[in-house]
């Protein structure tokens, strides 16, 4: 059984609540499991942790812990994020913050993809990072070193350098920082969502909207 099969049941539950405007809830995050080291890495120069990539500049912070190899995270990205972006991120109400939470059940792809995306962020900034994330989720079923390299070239980043970052896990400090933060926040699966540090009542689009509106009321 591969990692997609292992997520099948929880993904179906997530999909049931994932339509735009859906009010249904998912009892747990789509892909369950603790983050980890993802295996041994080759000794190499490792930069200090990068800042979490963000989009938008709102007073309310929407933090999402995600695993690029998790099918439920792809569903969140495809079905939840667009309306949230239209209604809250683009108007400057919400700041969207990405955090890496690669799961062992999806290793090594979960850790490799996180390193690839952070290599893009390091070289081209947050806007290009999120464009690359779109491509990672769009190609989730075929993630591989060749794909990381090719997709980097598509966003005008040196694909060979991204591939090297993946092979050496250069951004492992960044990923470990996010894993530690997720553990402290109580993250046990992906996607996990927090609005100003608090988890919504349930993992549904309506619950996230409600949490954002409540946070806005407290800020006003």
Structure, explained:
It is a single chain. By secondary structure, this protein is an alpha+beta fold. Helix content is 50%, strand content 11%. It contains nine helices and six strands. The strands form two sheets. It has a four-stranded mixed beta sheet, with helices on both faces. It is globular and about 45 Å long.
How is this structure best summarized?
This protein is α+β, with helices and mostly antiparallel strands and 220 residues long. It contains nine helices and six strands; from the N terminus they run ααβββαβαααααββα.
What layout of secondary structure does this protein have?
Elements: H1 3-6, H2 8-16, E1 31-32, E2 54-55, E3 60-66, H3 71-89, E4 94-100, H4 109-124, H5 126-138, H6 145-154, H7 159-168, H8 172-185, E5 189-190, E6 192-195, H9 205-219
Parallel strand pairs: 3-4
Antiparallel strand pairs: 1-5, 2-4, 3-6
Low-confidence stretches: 1-6, 8-29
> How would you describe the shape?
globular
> Helix-strand pattern, N to C?
HHEEEHEHHHHHEEH
* Count of distinct strands: 6
Radius of gyration: 16 Å
Strand adjacency order, main sheet: 2-4-3-6
Largest sheet: 4 strands, mixed
Helix/strand structural class: alpha+beta
Distance between the termini: 50 Å
Helix content: 40-55%
| Count of separate DSSP helical elements | 9
Percent range for β-strand residues? 5-15%
Q: What value does the average pLDDT take?
A: 87
Keywords:
globular, single chain, 6 strands, alpha+beta, 220 residues, 9 helices, four-stranded mixed beta sheet, 50% helix
């Amino acid at each position: 059984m591969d990692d997609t099969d292992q997520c099948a049941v929880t993904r179906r539950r997530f999909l049931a609540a994932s339509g735009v405007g859906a009010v249904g809830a998912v009892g747990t995050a789509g892909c369950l499991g603790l983050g980890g080291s993802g295996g041994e890495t080759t000794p190499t120069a490792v930069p200090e942790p990068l800042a979490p990539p963000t989009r938008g500049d709102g007073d309310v912070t929407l933090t999402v812990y995600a695993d690029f190899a998790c099918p439920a995270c792809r569903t969140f990205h495809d079905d939840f994020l667009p309306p949230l972006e239209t209604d809250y991120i683009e108007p400057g109400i919400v700041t969207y913050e990405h955090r890496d939470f690669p799961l062992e059940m999806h290793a090594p792809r979960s850790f490799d993809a996180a390193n690839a995306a952070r290599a893009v962020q390091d070289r081209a900034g947050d806007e290009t990072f999120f464009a690359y994330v779109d491509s990672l989720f769009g190609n989730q079923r075929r993630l591989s070193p060749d794909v990381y390299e090719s997709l980097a070239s598509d966003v005008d980043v040196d694909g060979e350098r991204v591939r090297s970052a993946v092979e050496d896990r250069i951004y492992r400090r960044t990923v470990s920082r996010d894993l530690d933060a997720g553990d402290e926040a109580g993250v046990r699966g992906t996607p996990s969502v927090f609005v100003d540090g608090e988890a919504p009542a349930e993992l549904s689009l309506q619950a996230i909207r409600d949490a954002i509106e409540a946070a806005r009321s407290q800020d006003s």
